[in-house]
Design a protein that fits this description.
Elements lengths: L2 H8 L17 H17 L2 E5 L5 E5 L10 E6 L14 E3 L7 E4 L4 E3 L15 E3 L8 H19 L8 E6 L13 H4 L3 E7 L4 E3 L4 E10 L15 H11 L15 E9 L3 E10 L2 H22 L4 E9 L3 H4 L4 H12 L5 E2 L7 H7 L6 E3 L11 E3 H28 L3
Helix pairs in contact: 1-3, 3-10, 5-6, 8-10
């Protein structure tokens, strides 16, 4: 199976995660996909394959050298975002893209246009996998899965390429912030790992947001509208008042680089009760903590005006900036950077405006920078991935494996061993 065939088959599995089920994996489709992946890893020749009750898949490519070198890992996630449906996905390949609008859905006039998405201009002459204009694509992170497995298959089929022991791990529920919750770092047994979960070709990241989820519930009083004067309290209006207190320039659509934000992700309500769900993000830990204090301050303002029983708030930290854990081992970032350059990819070292399993894994003792998988516009119908970017990701994975060997042996030689 080719890389492209593998990816197109993977996206046929509906693995949307779900925040409401409170089980792991959060949806049964993820476990079915995990079973498929475990079988595929066995078929291509990997060993020590495991699939646990939570849907985590791990496997080993044994070393083919007799020298002791670090054990490295490659990790991707199996779920797709709950932000948009993955049902009835029918992606297609726009071959030899020529820089024009790509018709995703002719009936509904949905276009993937370089006017709106100028990054398309970087891929003129390449083959681009796109959606049908109704679903997401799932390159986040089924591109990463396909790249890792293709790289492992290449190493199995080419024993002349020398490498140490390599571990691969596939996680559920990354998109709802739970991908690393049940990941057994000790069982995985790697010295460090890389998540293959980034965006455009060349991305290399070891910084991410500190993140928290917030749920705020506003209580009202419902009375028949014909007799409501002086009695009704509409919780939706209280929620709207709260929304108006937040700074309108500290939102995802108006921030970039290291700038943090408050993001309203969901509203559900009636006169009697309205719930707002926010996510809080900031790269700076102190600013992150201040944001949590600030949102509680705005809740206090609502309480002053509407009473103690008018609002409740729950804040839950989700993950932290992995920079703190990566900086002491920056050689693992340089190794990935050198591997990219060797295969003709220009590294783009930048902070992640989001998070990956790698952030939590780094705090669990497994340093885990993030490497590009090649896709763009994740979580929506304009998502796309150039095939050539995916092919380069495979080459980077293979090159990292070989450079671990060469750098270790060179170090031993320089020290007289």
């Amino acid at each position: 199976m080719t890389l492209t065939e593998r990816f197109l088959h993977y996206v046929s599995f509906n693995t949307t995660s779900d925040t409401q089920t409170h089980v792991t994996p959060s949806t049964p489709g993820q476990f079915l996909f995990a079973q498929y992946l475990a079988n595929e890893l066995k078929e291509i020749g990997l060993e020590d394959i495991s699939l646990d009750e939570n849907g985590y898949v791990m496997a080993t490519l044994p070393a083919n050298i007799d020298k002791a070198v670090p054990v490295i890992g490659f990790i991707s996630h199996m779920d797709t975002s709950p932000d948009m449906t993955a049902e009835n996905m029918t992606p297609r390949i726009e071959k030899n893209y020529q820089g024009k609008d790509i018709i995703l859905n002719e009936k509904e006039n949905i276009l993937l246009s370089p006017t709106d998405f100028p990054e398309l201009n970087h891929y003129v002459g390449q083959d681009i996998i796109v959606t049908n204009g109704k679903t997401l694509l799932g390159a986040d992170d089924k591109a990463g899965l396909a790249e890792i497995i293709t790289a492992m298959e290449h190493l199995v089929n080419h024993p002349e390429i020398k490498h140490g022991k390599i571990r691969v791990g596939f996680t559920p529920d990354e998109e709802i912030g739970e991908g690393a919750h049940h990941f057994d770092v000790e069982k995985f047994g790697a010295d460090w790992a890389y998540t293959i979960d980034g965006g455009q070709i060349g991305e290399l990241e070891y910084e991410n947001f500190n993140a928290a989820g917030v749920e705020i519930s506003f209580k009202g009083r419902n009375i028949h509208p014909g007799y409501a004067k002086g009695k009704m309290i509409n919780s939706q209006y209280i929620a709207n008042h709260f929304i108006s207190l937040l700074p309108n320039n500290e939102v995802p659509e108006k921030t970039s680089d290291y700038e943090g934000f408050y993001h309203l992700t969901n509203i559900s309500g009636t006169v009697e009760e309205t719930t707002l769900n926010y996510i809080i993000r900031d790269h700076d830990r102190n600013l992150f903590e201040q944001r949590k204090i600030q949102i509680q301050g705005w809740v206090s303002e609502i309480i002053k005006q509407y009473g103690e029983s008018s609002v409740t708030i729950k804040i839950k930290d989700q993950y932290y900036n992995m920079r703190e854990k990566i900086e002491p081992v920056m050689h693992i970032v340089k190794l990935a950077e050198d591997a990219m350059k060797t295969v003709g990819v220009t590294p783009i070292v930048k902070p992640i405006r989001g998070g990956t399993d790698g952030s939590q894994l780094s705090y669990k003792g497994l340093p885990c920078p993030n490497i590009f998988a090649g896709g763009h516009n994740f979580h929506g119908k304009y998502e796309f991935v150039p095939i050539q970017s995916m092919e380069k990701a495979v080459m980077v994975i293979v090159e990292i494996a070989t450079q671990v060997v060469s750098t270790t042996l060179n170090h031993l030689s320089d020290n007289g061993f």
